[in-house]
Amino acid sequence: MGSLKAVRLPKLTAILAFETAAKMGSLARAAACLSLTPAAVSQQIRQLEQHLGIQLFARSKSGVELTKQGSAYLAYVQQAFETLRVAQQSLERDKGDLSLNIFALPALASRWLNPSLKHWLTQHPDIDIRIHATHSAVDFNRTAADFYLAFGDEYYPQQEKEVLFQDWVFPVASPNLLTTAWSEGKHHINYPMIHVDWGKEGQFLPDWHEWLLSAKWSQCTPNRGPIYNLTAMAIDSALAGNGILLGQQHLIKKELADGRLIQLSDHKLPVTKPYYLIYPKRTLDKPKAAEFIQWLHSLC
Q: Are 192 and 224 spatial neighbours (Cβ–Cβ below 8 Å)?
């Protein structure tokens, strides 16, 4: 029982009276602000002081002044009230929330989602789309995320998940890099090779050594070239003519279509883990969420 008494909180009305009096510097002005009598405000503050076992104010004829302990307590009170105010504002916004918060791997956001986003925005001008690029796992309980475009689904056993697509890699290059007309039959590549290092996730992404062996090209040792940990940067590097790249089919569709990248071989290797759409069940309660899911699948 003693432990429960020690953590029992004061009445919220008493804390509010204290904060208001501290802000106004006067019990009378605090009373007017709270639509109470000065005697009622004074009583609530005395009850708060008795509960805490400290003196919060030094009283005088001109008003009240915070003690050292009162000033320290006020800082915590103001922080707590601000948290409550922000929470209320957030809940009020959510009542009529017409936004979808999309968390996504950077390459998926910039190379797969963005090129087609204009179509969705045109069809649904009343829905705000907020995109947050991240490589970190998404905690749906601690973020505003409605959807996460992820590589694999193993970290989300409790969430809804749908396969978006399984990708493939094949060699591509900027036409500005190729000094002569490309012929796959030549097999020997005299250009730098752009490499992508995904760290532990790299086991799911075929590299140049695997592709060269699988394609049975005479050149089985990869050429040196720049190494990137981000797929989007590696694609930018290929576009800049810095080397040839094992490009992911779904992430370079636009560049292939407009001729900024050229496919150098029909031989493809699969990325051995699919890309997923992850979301909590509550997301389906938001306006147009179900339509957004259908639209994402149409891009695949």
A: yes
Name the phi and psi angles at 207, rounded to 5: -105, 180
Beta strand 128-133 with 99-104: parallel, antiparallel or unpaired? parallel
Both tokens of 195, joined, read: 């490499």
Counting Cα atoms < 13 Å in the Cβ hemisphere of 264 gives: 31
Exposed/middle/buried for 63, CB within 10 Å: 0-12, 13-18, 19+?
middle
Contact 112, 152 (CB under 8 A): no
pLDDT tens per residue, range 41-92: 889 999 998 999 999 988 777 778 899 998 999 999 999 888 887 777 666 5
**Any bridge partners for residue 244, and if so which?**
193
pLDDT at residue 1, as a whole number: 40
Query: What's the CA angle centered on 269, arms 265 and 275, to 5 degrees?
Result: 125
Task: Burial-class residue 29 by CB neighbours within 10 Å (0-12, 13-18, 19+).
Answer: middle
- Site of tokens 């149409």: 298
How far apart CA 174 and CA 262 sit, in angstroms, is 6
